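Open question from group meeting: does this chain pack into something compact, or does most of it stay loose? Before anyone orders reagents, we agreed to write out a predicted structure and look at it together. Recording both the input and the output here so the notebook holds the full record.
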Amino acid sequence: MPSTKLLIVDDEETILKQLTWALKENYNIATAQTFDQAIKTVKSFRPDIMILDLSLTSTTGDFEGFSILESSLREYPLLKIIIITGHGQRENALRALKEGAYDFYTKPVIIDELKIILQRATYILSLEKELSNLRKPPGEKHTFEGIIALSKPMRKVFETVRKIAPTDVAVLITGESGTGKELVARAIHARSSRNDMAFVPINCGAIPENLLESELFGHEKGSFTGAHMAKEGKFQAAEGGTLFLDEIGELPQPLQVKILRFLQDQIIEHVGSSKQIQLNVRIVAATNRNLEEMLEKKEFRKDLFYRINTLNIHLPPLREREDDILLLAKYFVDYYNNEFSKNIRGFSQSARKVLYTYKWPGNIRELENRIKRGVIMSSGTTILEKDLDIIPAKPGDDSAESLKTPDDLANIAKAYKNITLKEAKNKIETRLINGALIRSSGNVSATAKQLDVSRPTLHDLMKKHHIDPKNFRTPGSKK
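Structure tokens returned:
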């Protein structure tokens, strides 16, 4: 199939058929006959070139060609729009050119002449795209719906997203914490026919169980203490779009039943009401837990698992994406250079080595926080190994891999040479808390859960070691 996408907008079906037949060998073609069809197709098809009948009218007799022109160029500034006009409409054609149209052509259509205009538009478009890519920061050249990656494992993920996004089937995204599951969920939504409707995320593990049902399904006034007015939930907020259930493994059993019912019938009920509400919402779920193990322990319903796991995307951990590490690191350097008014240009050789050899238990979230620290701590234009505060093996890390070589044990011994047991205990506590805060982006509740301590205990420890969780938060992270 030809790679250049061409959208033809005309209310005359004979014109659409004529142009489609004449141009289909050289262009991937979509058509639209009305304003609504045109706007929807622009968003879903994402054309490179559009042939637009400027005299397209609505049912009320109003001209809508200019509205399509304005809306399409606002969405895709590089889109080349060729206006088709009738005799006596030259003023409208010139106005369209002033408003951003690429060229115009007067009916009746002569195919050979139109092909020349299209060829020229295709060539100009290719030059503009090339120039646009040259001007992008390094990371942006390797993005897919905002996800920065070029490694083979992630290219497979992107290919899977391309295939499943146009469907309405439920999707389960699995992977370790910090691997970018919500970004993939947003990419699925962006590539779907629902992309002009809402994407509504909710973290099932971050909301107390007694409030989660109301947050999801809404409630009626007086249905529980504090319900002073009726409220719609996340399901209704996502009507026509996508609801992202993050950490679905944290859902209590009663809510698992209600989610299952929705997947079967697309029906919900408010808390405190028996009225059924029919919705049209796509479900994308994610978890860092092993749901199959939870099935064996009867902590997660089998019927719900098979419903949400129709299509599965597994995100590889950062340690399996070696080609992406430096790419992401450079992107975060650029981001935090701007935030902190710094001029970091790269990494020392030893800093690069540690970026590649470290296991990244907190994945991309941890990498971002380490780079943020490096930008802040660097005294020059280069981030040094010490600025990242990473050593090959961290005391307190209970992973088998961190202690598997004599060199690792030697590093631990070197790190704690000539200090007392009390000093070592304080140093280990500090590193454990810092590591957990990095992995949770400064989320105190999640950090306490990782360390298996209560929130008050964690607050006491952070106060003791002068640790401020705000320093670990990234843009958009929760407290």
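Observations to bring back to the group:
The two ends are 49 Å apart (CA to CA).
The domain at 5-135 is CATH 3.40.50.2300 (Rossmann fold).
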